[in-house]
Amino acid sequence: MASIILEISFLLYKVVSLHNIQETIQSTIEKYNIEKYYLDFEIEDKKRIEQKGVYTVHFEENKLNTLEIVSFLRRLKTISNVYLECVYRDNISCDIIYASKFYLKNMEKVYHEKYLNNKKNRAYSETEFELLKGIEAIFKKNKNYFKNEVPKNYDEYLKVCDK
Question: Which of 135, 133, 138 is nearest to 153 (CA)?
Answer without folding.
Answer: 133
